[in-house]
UniProtKB/TrEMBL annotation:
Superkingdom assignment: Eukaryota
Pfam families: Aldedh (PF00171)
InterPro entries (UniProt xref): Ald_DH/histidinol_DH, Ald_DH_N, Aldehyde_DH_dom
Domain Aldehyde dehydrogenase: residue ranges: 48-214
SUPFAM superfamilies the record matches: ALDH-like
Protein name: Aldehyde dehydrogenase domain-containing protein
Annotated GO MF terms: oxidoreductase activity
Amino acid sequence: YMGSELFLKPVFTCIAGAAQIMSAAKTLPAPLSDLKIQYTKIFINNEWHNSASGKKFPVHNPATGEKMCEVEEGDKEDVDKAVKAARKAFEFGSSWRTADASERGRLLNKLADLIERDCLLLATMESLNGGKIFSNAYLMDLGGCITTLRYFAGWADKIQGRTIPMDGNYFSFTRHEPVGVCGQIIPWNFPLVMFIWKIAPALCCGITVVVKPA
């Protein structure tokens, strides 16, 4: 999939779009100076959870070594809980499984709207967490997130099957269906935009997702 046109097109689109923004932008907003990190728990089934073990680990700014916060340390029990929730959400008759394709597109567009609204906050966090310059985080990473979400939101109701003419008394057709729960691991260098690159096509197709940061 990573080498397919469906994946590569939004990647190149977001890079080209960000490059245009960079050349056109005369000024950038300043990163937040009083960043307060609120969400440090494990997110499962639309709820925040403490880790089953009660363990936490520190997150540091790699550019300065400064400790930013502590986050919950997930283990096997937490992963199992997330997988069970994702499987339940994928069951026949669930609200996610019965949602129209256009509804999945609407939800992806809504997520893009929310990222756009909180772009400054997220870019500041991404800059500090990755040890990268703010302009890259703001223009490339966040711009890529929004572009990718809107791209796959548009795809949600355009995934179609085919009928294939066959000799003899046969009826041949293809039908694309979601495969189930998808486990995804995101890297350390572009965590937010790679998170979006992974979940957007999956959610677009009706798949449920369990994500593990590197």
